[in-house]
Design brief:
There is one protein chain. The protein has one domain: TolB, C-terminal domain (Neuraminidase, 6 Propeller), CATH 2.120.10.30. The longest helix has 6 residues. Strands 1-26-25-24 form a four-stranded antiparallel β-sheet, with no helix packed on it. Strands 2-3-4-5 form a four-stranded antiparallel β-sheet, with no helix packed on it. Strands 6-7-8-9 form a four-stranded antiparallel β-sheet, with no helix packed on it. The protein is built from two helices and 26 strands. By secondary structure, it is mostly beta strands.
């Protein structure tokens, strides 16, 4: 682990929490619909001790939640209320999801690749290059019902030793990719984003949400998905001075996203319908639990949970 190298997050200039520690959240008036999703507006702190928690992923078959602690080069596991290390070292894994067979699919900054861990958590590399060139540092990831794996590739893991290994970009850009493990085919989905970050499908897979956290951008966009290609880019929200990092859709097509020191929720018309404040800067979230109604939130140093009257899209 790298704890000996870095200061606490609010004192470490390489950590986003340092840059945003004095920035306040603006209040949002929650809609009646959003309020109906909330049982108690209280987060339970499941764990604290990460430097930058990320990539929460609930593995249904195992009834566990795993997530990344990127600067500490490890992954954590929540199992029946107990937190232990899941993988150490993790090769600086960031975003995680499961495929249609329950395998864990992870973005590795250190390996500059996408990993697969099977039901026994045996690790293998799915894809690690684009036309013979290394990826920048795969960041976030989602899997479509047809088995294709969609992921973003900004450079955050090669910029310093905080979230990976310093390195050079080997292709001209930061792309969003689609990988088909059935035929080992890799396609570029879009080249137009500056630093594509979070990525998630809508509940019906007719839309895909992708955030851009490039300089002075900090926006969440939504595209139509037609024949496994994307078009008709639309702005969901401009999060400046904060940013949208990771997000998930619920069963009704609302998108729940990290939004600074809060979770914001937008309906399928891109209208802001509500906000939940979080004690720390948020990176990502996941719907989990056997019924899909537990909202897990990775913030800077902690993992939080909240029971909802709503379930995630993958529980349809």
């Amino acid at each position: 682990m790298n704890t000996y190298k870095f200061l606490p997050p609010d004192q470490e200039p390489k950590n986003a929490a340092f840059r945003y520690k004095n920035v306040k959240m603006e209040p949002v008036e929650n809609s009646n619909l959003f309020n109906s999703y909330i049982k108690k507006n209280i987060f339970k702190k499941e764990f604290t001790g990460t430097l930058w928690g990320e990539g929460p992923c609930y593995i249904n078959q195992k009834d566990i939640l795993v997530w990344s602690d990127i600067p500490n080069n490890r992954m954590m596991k929540l199992d029946k209320g107990t937190v232990t290390e899941f993988l150490n070292p993790s090769n600086y894994c960031n975003g995680n999801t499961t495929d249609n067979y329950g395998n864990l699919i992870s973005c590795s900054h250190g390996g500059r690749c996408v990993y697969k861990a099977d039901s026994d958590f045996n690790l293998s590399v799915l894809v690690d290059n684009f036309n013979g060139n290394k990826f920048n540092s795969p960041n976030d990831i989602c899997v479509k019902s047809d088995g294709t794996i969609w992921f973003t590739d900004p450079p955050y893991g090669i910029l310093s030793d905080y979230e990976g290994y310093p390195g050079e970009k080997e292709y001209a850009g930061c792309y969003v990719f689609r990988y088909n493990p059935k035929n080992d085919k890799l396609d570029v989905i879009t080249k137009e984003l500056n630093k594509p970050n979070g990525i998630a499908f809508s509940n019906d897979e007719k839309k895909i949400y992708i955030s851009d956290t490039g300089e002075n951008i900090k926006c969440l966009f939504v595209y139509d998905v037609i024949d496994n290609k994307i078009q008709n880019k639309n702005l969901v929200y401009d999060f400046k001075p904060f940013f949208s990092d990771g997000f998930r859709c619920d069963k009704d097509g609302n998108i729940w996203t990290s939004a600074g020191k809060a979770i914001k929720c937008f309906n399928s018309k891109n209208e802001l319908i509500g906000q939940i404040l979080v004690p720390e800067l948020v990176s990502n979230l996941e719907f989990g639990g056997k019924e899909g109604n537990i909202l897990y939130v990775t913030a800077t140093t902690s993992l939080y949970s909240m029971e909802l009257n709503q379930t995630g899209a993958k529980y349809l």
